Amino acid sequence: MLRGALAAMPLLLAVLAGRPTLGVPAALGAMLAGINDRPGSRRASVARLGFPALAGSTGLLLGSEIAEAVGDGRSLVVLPLVVGLLGLGAGAISSTGPVASACGTQVLVAVVIGAGMPLPEPGPLRALLFLAGAGWLLLLRLVLPSPGGRRHGPCGLDGEREAVAMVYDAVAGLLLAAGGPRALMGRAALSAALDQAQDALSGPRLRWRASSAAERRLHAQYAAAFPLAEAATALAWAGVPLPARITEGPRRLADAVRTGGPCGPLPAPARTDAGLRALDDALLRAATVFDRPSGTAPGMRPGHSDASVLGGAWSAAGLEYGLRVAVCCATSTALAQWLHHDHWYWLPATTVFLVKPDLGPLASRVVCRAVGTVVGAAVFGVVTMLVSAPFPLVSTVALCGALLPVATRHFAVQTAVVTVLVLSLVLLGGEPSASWGRVVESLLACGTVLFVGHLPMPGRRGHSVRAALDTAVGSAHRYLGHVLDAPEDHALRGTLRRDAYRSLARARTAIDLSAAELPPVSKHSAGSEGVAGALERLIDTTTACAVQLDHQAAALSPAHAELLAAHLSELDRARAVPAG
Fold first, then answer.
1. With bands split at pLDDT 50, 70 and 90, how would you rate the model's confidence at 293?
2. Measuring CA to CA, which residue among 514, 521, 518, 116 is closest to residue 332?
3. Are 110 and 130 a contacting pair, CB within 8 Å?
4. CA 573 → CA 443, 504, 527, 543, 577, distances in Å?
5. What are the counts of helices (DSSP H) followed by strands (DSSP E) for the chain?
6. pTM score, two decimals?
7. DSSP states of 31-70 as a string?
8. Which residues contact 99 (CB under 8 A, 6 or more apart)?
9. What confidence score (pLDDT) does residue 309 get?
10. For residue 74, which phi and psi values (nearest 5 degrees)?
11. Dmax of the chain from CA atoms?
């Protein structure tokens, strides 16, 4: 919230200099970066905030060039066609991941604003100001301390430490839930914690060489959690309740990660079966890593098995989503140009936000956008009745920036805050506020997206769910093949296991999102939950087999082999069921 409030500093300086229009692009860049600002490590924030900012500044420059090429008159064909083509590419790229989604959204929003918002500054200057505003917020993210963080230098490891500590906490939670109804939830929580730690440790180095020992040690501590996670998953798969004291070791390791100190003596579990022996061995190896103060223990860098962004964008799922974004953008631009060619950018910009792929089900986000816009316009109307001078408007922008981190928890609240913020910038930019006109345009955008989102498209539907499941099935088969062929290669096994569980989590997210849509959309993913369930059982059983091969026998037991065969057959049957 402090970063969000300080993000209005470039706008304040522009107002103090008597050039408020200089501060509008900077404030827009800071606002969009603030929407992407999430808790986590500083190194992860460089990509999460920096790449979308570069995309947005490029879009603002491109939009200015488009405006000059098209001219001042109405453009019911050329401009919608250009925006639609850009929407096809940006939408396809947006479907490949959260950072790509932010990039695609920002480039489209910036293109529309650059082409439609009448600011006196030339396009290159607007693009630089946009980038400066986003860069200012990123600088605040890197420099300002995080609450409760233990910093070492201007770019401390507080976010990374907490992410790794949460992995050990999740291991303890899964061990405690073993044999109970919450075991599946505990395994999913452990997978999510490993994903978050992997993301937190990825990205560029932000520290000087003198701090590299602490960084190497943290990577080693993250790698030491892999065998613990494997053993805990195998114990949960066995379905036998475990004594509560078995969680003491992982809890102490989590505390040691947070404090940066040694873990001390760890309680050893009983070594009565393969899972408990694996857990004991993993605790011993982790204690060795944690008690090396020099941080020279070799850490395993997080690996990524994601397909390339271009490959994902060119897939059936990417093209399906890109086509829908293109139709939405072209339709809303044509409608805005038909209604009025001045100040037309609000309607397509609203459409771009509505079709962002990671904001929940389409129908609910449309309703939230409509409600949030009405509330935000009403609040802004009250504000302008009381004050309309530049400095109170800058204060309003600063207050909205401070509220953004809280508002992002619900799309309707975020929409209300962003509406007040953008209307304040519009007024500072010299345009009439016309807040209720913006409400009408937002409602038109909601109707456009809701209509286009349920139009029948060429070919089959539900590509996003099928693509996520196909990726997860491929990852599971690679993991199983490695466990059966080369179980002694623990490093590659850990990477393949992470790929399998992470792909499964993404598939379940896609399934849950599709299931929450209206029937015309959700019916195309019927049967996908059965595939995900069979896949989950196969991956868990593969993990249990890996532990059994390590600590009990040189070959799979007949019982484990029968289970694997049964799960493979179940997965094949589930995939053979046609979607609705």
1. low
2. 116
3. yes
4. 45, 18, 11, 22, 7
5. 24, 0
6. 0.78
7. HHHHHH--SS-HHHHHHHHHHHHHHHHHHHHHHHHHHHHH
8. 47, 48, 51, 52
9. 66
10. -65, 150
11. 80
Q: How far apart are CA 121 and CA 126, in angstroms?
A: 6
Mean pLDDT of the 206-216 span: 59
pLDDT over 60 (residue 150): no
Q: CA nearest 113: which of 98, 125, 123?
A: 123
The pair of structure tokens assigned to 370 is: 């409509």
Q: Return the residue matching tokens 């078995």.
A: 246
Residue 554 pLDDT exceeds 60: yes
- Which tokens is 439 given? 């409400």
Q: Of 6-20, 455-469, 496-510, 519-533, where does mean pLDDT reach its minimum?
A: 455-469
Q: Which of 544, 536, 523, 542 is nearest to 570 (CA)?
A: 536
Structural contact between residues 569 and 506, judged by C-beta atoms closer than 8 angstroms: no
Task: Write out the two tokens for 495.
Answer: 């990477």
Reference 429, options 130, 116, 23; nearest CA is 23
DSSP 370-388: HHHHHHHHHHHHHHHHH--
* Res 153 pLDDT > 90: no
| φ/ψ (deg, to 5) at 517 | -75, 170
* Residue 101 identity (one-letter amino acid): S
Query: What's the one-letter identity of residue 357?
Result: P
Give the DSSP per-residue string, 240-259: ----GGGGHHHHHHHHHHHH
Rounded Cα distance between 7 and 399, Å, is 10
The residue written with tokens 């600590």 in the block is 551
More confidently predicted of 457 and 153: 457
Residue with tokens 């990577």: 219
pLDDT digits (tens, 9 = 90+) for 315-367: 777 777 888 889 999 999 999 888 876 778 888 988 888 887 666 777 888 88
